Amino acid sequence: MILPIYTYGTAVLRKVAEPITKDYPKLNELIENMFETMYHADGVGLAAPQVGLSIRVLVIDLLPLKEEYPELGSFKVSMINPAMLEFSEDKVAGEEGCLSIPGIHESVFRSEKIKIKYYDADFNEHIEEFEGYKARVIQHEYDHLEGNLFTDKISPIRRQLLKSKLTSIVKGKTDTSYKIKTA
Known about the structure:
23% of the residues lie in helices and 31% in strands. The chain is built from three helices and nine strands, in the order βαβββββββααβ. It has one domain (5-181): Peptide deformylase (Peptide Deformylase), CATH 3.90.45.10. Strand 5 and strand 6 (101-111) form a beta hairpin. It is globular.
C-alpha cells in the first residue's frame, strides 16, 4: 500500500523516533509498504517518520543507481532501531534531496565512513561498516529518526535563500508525483 509522505513542516519529522520491539504490529507489512511508497516516489531511502510514524525504522534500495553505479545496485536493506556507533572524521560533500522536501537539492557534508548497529526485519542484530554513497544514504535516513533534515546541515545563508521554497512546501504549494501530507 502506498502511504502519503509527510513533508517539511510536519511535526513528526522533528521528533526523535522511538525504538520498537519485535512484536510491533504488522512490522513486515509496514516495511513492504515503505518500500512500495519509496519506489512509487522514485526515492532510494525512506524513514518511518516520513510516513507519519515516529518509530526507528528505515528502508533503502539503491537499485535505481545500478546503471550508473553497478556496485550500488544490489544494496537493499531495512534497518530497525539503528544506532550509529562511529562516524569517520573524513567528511565529503554530496548533493542530496529528500522526498519530504520536494524540489530542493543541496550539497551536504557527511562522514565518508560509518559503523552502525541495527536489526533486520527478523530482529537479527547486525553491526556493519559502510562508506561512500551507502554511508551517505544511511546517514540521511538516520537523521530522520533523530528529527533532523538535510536542510539543517546547509549554511544559514543557503537556508535563507531557500526560505520561500520551504514556506511553499509547508503551505502545500508544491508539485509531486506522489501523495503527500502537509503541516
